Amino acid sequence: ELDFNTKSWGPIQFKECKAFGVETG
Q1: Quick one: CA dihedral 12, 15, 4, 24, positive or negative?
Q2: Which pLDDT band holds residue 1 (cuts at 50, 70, 90)?
């Protein structure tokens, strides 16, 4: 499960996040 509120994005988590259309500053 992805935590879209985390600040510690790894490259894989970030790609998954982008795949869901979610962006975090």
Answers
A1: positive
A2: low
